[in-house]
Specification:
Elements lengths: L2 H14 L9 H14 L5 H22 L9 H4 L6 H18 L7 E3 H11 L3 H10 L7 E3 H11 L19
Antiparallel strand pairs: 1-2
Helix pairs in contact: 2-3, 2-6, 3-5, 5-8, 6-7
Length: 177
């Protein structure tokens, strides 16, 4: 696993531990889902249902694949070596990427405006300065929008253990807020 991917794993774990108790459990996914849905006020019921299902599948996949001792929680040691395995998590990540990117496009024009992107990524827990750096790395157009497909692909790249120098690396870089 590349150093960049390892840093991304550490950050994802800290974000998924939404209640801050040091492990990931189903309550964390409920908290994060609620925060993301709260930020997606303009999205329709179908987009909201898709992100709920994607978060639920994500938790189910983690619990099934990584909860080595069956205690209902995922520790960092359980999470770290396996979460970037495309064979185990590829379809789950693809569903999540598609659902989250679609949530950022409530008018279904294929474009995501920076303010909604910022709201959704803040709801997940990323730092604002890093979110802006990520959005800029995606190459927004003159109206400060990115393609839905660009964001979805960027999410999938974020979980790729062999990738470095990707836009998603902006999320782990230390930045002044």
């Amino acid at each position: 696993m590349r150093t960049e991917a390892a840093q991304r794993v550490e950050l994802v774990f800290s974000l998924f531990d939404a209640n801050g108790n040091g492990v990931i459990d189903s309550d964390d996914f409920d908290l994060m889902t609620g925060r993301v849905l709260e930020a997606a006020t303009a999205s329709d019921a179908g987009a909201k249902a898709a992100i709920r299902a994607a978060f639920r599948r994500y938790w189910t996949t983690l619990a099934t694949e990584l909860d080595a001792n069956g205690d209902g929680v995922i520790t960092l040691d359980e999470f770290r070596p396996f979460v970037l395995d495309p064979d185990r998590f590829g379809p789950t990540i693809s569903e999540f990427a598609t659902a989250l990117a679609a949530l950022g496009d409530p008018d279904e024009d294929g474009l995501i405006e920076r303010p909604l992107f910022l709201s959704l990524m803040t709801a997940i827990g990323f730092e604002k300065a890093n979110i802006h750096a990520l959005f800029d790395a995606f190459g927004p157009d003159a109206e400060d929008r990115i393609l839905v497909t660009t964001w979805a692909a960027g999410i999938e790249d974020y979980y790729a253990p062999d990738k470095a120098g990707i836009p998603g690396d902006q999320l782990v870089a230390a930045r002044a807020v």
